[in-house]
Input
Amino acid sequence: MTRATVASGTFYPANPNKLKEFIKNATPRNITPQEAKAVILPHAGYIYSGKVAVETVANIRPKKLLVALGPNHTGRGLPFSVYTQGCWQTPLGDIEIEPETAQEITKTRILEADIQAHAYEHSIEVQLPILKYFFEEFKFIPIACILADLAVYKEIAGIIYTSLEKTSGFAQSLIIASSDMTHYESQAQAEKKDKYVLEAILNLDTSNFLKRVQEKNVSMCGIAPVGIMLEFLKLSQAKKSRLIKYTTSAEASGDYSSVVGYAGAIFN
Output
């Protein structure tokens, strides 16, 4: 089963050469990639968030197995949907699903095999060409997520953690939480809210992260992916975090009255 691209030519270039050129030009010089257990990446059009995503991935040593958690914008499919077999197309080549871990994950009641949630969803696809460019050969497991509570995020993180241990994929795995930050507020307000939320995220504090999102009514779309990622990091005893880059859509559009925020961060 092959999933065709739905965002190429709109969110990012469909032409492989133009795609590589964008990534090359957006990559800072003199970067030394480091080990990471998890990463937050944005998923807007490359003109807006591509530089954040490129710089963040460029800072990570390549991994062989990626578990990609993305928000479900379309409302299609099951609540926590795992694409369990086949491959996904990108302009830089197909990327295979890792079936052993995917099947292990979906033995549980909460994570279920489902392709419908992924059919027209861009939140994971948009990141794949950048990951393919830097990591070259890897397999992945895409999981589309809806909003839930902390107990659910803890349960899912535990399932992913134990499944990776069982299939011997833990050492070479990377958890990806796909999210944009505040949507369609002024530059000043977006920066203030996002800084407040990112502080809790970088402190690896899931409860405070969820509290701050609710307190300030922060319209980030990847609350569930980030919540699951943070709980996974607790299980894997992560200690370090680093914000690689934060910006807003105003950098590209010039419109500071209504922006979307984008953050890239790595965790180890």
Notes: DSSP finds nine helices and twelve strands in the chain. Residues 8 and 160 are 29 Å apart (CA to CA).
